[in-house]
Specification:
Elements lengths: L14 H10 L2 H4 L5 H19 L4 H12 L12 H10 L6
Helix pairs in contact: 3-4
């Protein structure tokens, strides 16, 4: 008997299904990235968004804040923009920079 036909496993459309659904909507369109470089950049972007969600950040607000201060940030401190450290970094920003 196959896994899908088994009555012992209950289908549960919970939060995991919703997370997978968000990413799978564009799967067919993402097959055509234009080039390997574009596909790699898209992968980095999606990873950044997923990591922001994993750390409890709103991805759109996180990216907006990071892009706003990125041009004025010292290159040797770019790791502070990682979603893991962003809450601490954002708290240290001046109110005008937030």
């Amino acid at each position: 008997m196959s896994f899908l036909c088994s009555r012992s496993v209950r289908a549960c459309p919970g939060s995991c299904g919703r997370c997978v659904g968000q990413e799978s909507v564009g799967r067919k369109a993402w097959l055509f990235a234009g080039s390997d470089d574009h596909a790699e950049r898209a992968g980095h972007f999606f990873t950044l968004i997923a990591t922001a969600r994993l750390h409890g950040l709103e991805p759109e607000a996180y990216l907006r804040d990071v892009l706003r201060v990125l041009a004025h940030w010292p290159r040797e401190r770019y790791l502070e923009f990682a979603p893991k450290y962003w809450a601490t970094t954002r708290a240290r920003l001046l109110p005008a920079e937030r």
